[in-house]
Amino acid sequence: MEPAVIKKLDETVVNKIAAGEIIQKPANALKELIENSLDAKASHIQVTVKSGGLKLLQIQDNGTGIRREDLAIVCERFTTSKLTKFEDLSNIGTFGFRGEALASISHVAHLCIQTKTANETCGFKACYEDGLLKGPPKPCAGNQGTIITVEDLFYNMPQRLQCLKSPAEEMQKICDVVSKYAVHNSGTAFTLKKYGEPPTLRTADRSTREDNITNIYGLQIGRALLPVELEDDVHKFKMMALVTKVDYSAKRGIMLLFINHRLVDSTALKAAIDSIYSTYLPKGMHPFTYISLEITPTHLDVNVHPTKHEVHFLYEDEIIDKIKRRIELKLLGSNTSRTFYKQLRLPGINNPDVDDKSGTNLKNNDKERLDKDRVRTDSKEQKLEKFLLQKCLPKTVTNLNSKNNDNDGDETLSRSSKRKSGLLTSIKEMQDNIDRRLNIRLRRTLKELVFVGIVDETYALFQQDTKLYLCNTCKFSEELFYQRLLFEFQNLPHIKLEPSLNIKELVRIALDCEEAGWSPNDGDKIDLAERAANILLAKAPIMRDYFSLRINEDAQLETLPAIIPQFHPSSVHLPMYILRLATEVDWDTEVECFETFCRETARFYSQTSSLDIESMPQRHKFSVEHILYPSFKRYLLPPNSLKQQLFELTNLSRLYKVFERC
Hints:
Strand content: 15-25%
Helix content: 25-40%
GO biological process, one term: mismatch repair
Largest sheet: 9 strands, mixed
Number of strands: 24
Oligomer: single chain
Organism: Ceratitis capitata
InterPro entries: DNA_mismatch_repair_CS (IPR014762), DNA_mismatch_S5_2-like (IPR013507), HATPase_C_sf (IPR036890), Mlh1_C (IPR032189), MutL/Mlh/PMS (IPR002099), MutL/Mlh/Pms-like (IPR038973), Ribosomal_Su5_D2-typ_SF (IPR020568), Ribsml_uS5_D2-typ_fold_subgr (IPR014721)
Subcellular location: Nucleus
Distance between the termini: 104 Å
Shape: globular
Family: Belongs to the DNA mismatch repair MutL/HexB family.
Radius of gyration: 30 Å
Structural class: alpha+beta
């Protein structure tokens, strides 16, 4: 038997292997980028995410920026401004030091850096691939700081993509990372948002850690926080912690641990804290803990893990034991009484804070909210039917398949392998136009709506605060579908049709309808259907690549865009929709093409059919109550024109006046 030949790996392979160790998922990449921003002394950090960070992961800060001279090597491995010799690790005070984060990201994604320093008159933008600069940095406008854009993460590592969770779960991990850094770095303002949507997390640069914990993790945790401090001269460490009292518990424990301001994990410390609370909490319940340790740098070894989420330090057992005893002592001192929060008074019981004679409030002069101003519906109430999706779909429409689970391997491969250079200018302008037309007051109304019931196939009722509104569901949903088509441009999943439908036959069926307005002077219906099919076949690549509407070479309609999850359009109006795509869409100019296509598609998806309502009433009720109106609440940016489609029927103040007269 001959021994195997030992060969030196190619440098590209080595770099990709190293990148896979450091950047394991989008949250790892974001953690490295946040630490770079904090090292740059940023006071504002904004993170924008699309598809769980796989399509887009952008971080913008107002830090010191990167010098123009350093842009050439900033993405090469082991290039850093944090240390010069190995001995510097013993006194490292920054988050990064290896110089591998940006290099690793550039090997598994498309990376662009836009930066401006205080001394430069303008900013510079540079793009990188496999650690190398793709061209000389280009001058650009911009504010001081850095914008790092990561697109198509793991585009060249399909095995890693398959191992990742769904975009929603990856987004949750990203939110967890931002939340933890926002709590610890209370002097820095953090913003996290999905692309094209309002922020999901926002903190101020002047808030305290207690404020950020309350804002991010909830009022219940914020009320139960107990500060714990410890400073030890023997082992040279200092601790500042916020732990929950024993009257709070949750099934999933949350622990935030920072050692020398670096987010890390410690199994031993977590087990020690759980052992403390096991005396007080029911079995299976856990506390919330935030711990910040500052240890002498000479006692700390940070270079033990590629992602730096683990550290080793001297006297670990002794330090953990002291922390355990201090927290236990603090809990014992706080266990003499527990706080209970009251919300309502029992009927017939007088308010002790109100003087019976004068009727005035004796405490802080706060007036109790009058009955006519009370909101009678709790927006947190949910019905069981919300979780019971009726499986009464049209026969031509099957289950929703996202692009990541597309059965057509060729399309998935082509979409994942090609690089998207960003949105088209026309789409950006159309999205900006939606933002400019936004009615803030109407948006606030939709954000706080509570669905009441369906009036007919066009109108429904909802409540906002003390007001009752009649809403034109069709008009609101048409605007919703139009906006989602633009904001999810090139990122739409699809609805697969089984069997596929012949578009010539669909056009011929549409011409038989009165709505088409066909007359003998227009020509033979078969010839018209042939011409319409040829138009749609010629424009099929545009509809497929941008809007997930696929027409194959045999003129068969295979898929429709899935604009809103779980929502399926009425199949009754499908023939007329196909006809209008051929006749009403302006395919010659880019802006008009996208505008008319999105409008026609939104019009089709918003239409309801009396036939569908009569045959599947439960499906229609479910779609309106649990799909459309929650989508209005979450996504819709209403323009001023929609004010004419919303009618205030009454409010509690007006009703009380009526009852008083009676």
